[in-house]
Amino acid sequence: MSVASPPFDCRVLCASVVGDAIRSSGIFDSVDPYCEAAGFLQAPAMIQDPDGISACLLGRIPEGMLLAFRGTLPLDIHDIDSLLDWMEDFDADPIDAPPLPGLVHQGFWEDLGRLWPLLLPELQRQKGGCGKLYLVGHSKGGALANLAAMRLWKEHGIEADSIYTFGAPRCGDAVFAAAYDGQFECFRYDYADDIVPHLPPRVLFLSLLSLLPEIGDVFLTLAHREYAAVGTLRFIDWEGKIVGDSPNLEFKRMLRLTELILERDWGAIARDHQITCGSGYFHSVCPSDICGARADAPSVTR
């Protein structure tokens, strides 16, 4: 590598950026400098479902195998793959998915199901003698990483050594979360006013949003899903510091998001979900020298 090996959390964040760059055309968008920083020993395998809705990367790193799931495609009303991907995100009904415990998000489970016939054989082919297995993902990719870890364990006895998610939505109920946390080591990164980790919305968040003038009544009509977050929270606060969970943190985060929605500051909410160079996630997790000329991250203090 042209730079000193970054911290492992930074490397898996870079792998998430590379995973997000997969497009249905079968090519990557620009992945420099992220692919190099991720530490792949060779070009990773790119796996997509036949409909182009979900995708992942699987490749070797010095520690073993790294499986990175792509997040939701950028919204484009002229791109059928993008529209279908967003429709799956909103398909949030909780369903049984044996042998997984509890209830899981229907849309995310179906996304994983499309990938599974291609992903599982490739993983089994590559994993022999490769040591540890790490799963990672940003946004929807984090939810798929969590579901995949549980499915690999329950169906095939393959246990992920660690899972890392960045700005991931919830994918299962409290029963699923309890079983997951009892089995896996997962590190869940959320940044400042990123709204995606609060989705699907729980009743407390909807209650706060319903107090907004003019638009509050809209939120009263939305169904709430009492899904639970999984893993150990590493929250990147509004000053760019990484802190652990605390009793009042979730309420403080929801209150600040409600204020941004009241101000209609959709740009700030969207920026806080980004993970590339210059984003809050990248600025806090990765050394600045990885991005070179693109290392001018905006101030994360608000």
Distance between the termini: 35 Å
Q: Which strand order does the major sheet show?
A: 1-2-3-6-7-8-9-10
Strand content: 15-25%
State the helical fraction.
25-40%
CATH superfamily: Alpha/Beta hydrolase fold, catalytic domain
**CATH-derived architecture:** 3-Layer(aba) Sandwich
Q: Enumerate how many helices there are, as a single number.
A: 11
Largest sheet: 8 strands, mixed
Tally the structural domains: 1
- The CATH C-level name is Alpha Beta
Task: Tell me what you see in this structure.
With 302 residues, the protein is an alpha/beta fold. The chain has a single domain, classed as Rossmann fold (3-Layer(aba) Sandwich), CATH 3.40.50. Helices cover 38% and strands 16% of the residues. It is built from eleven helices and ten strands. Helix 3 crosses helix 4 (106-127) and helix 4 (106-127) packs across helix 5. The protein is globular, with a radius of gyration of 18 Å.
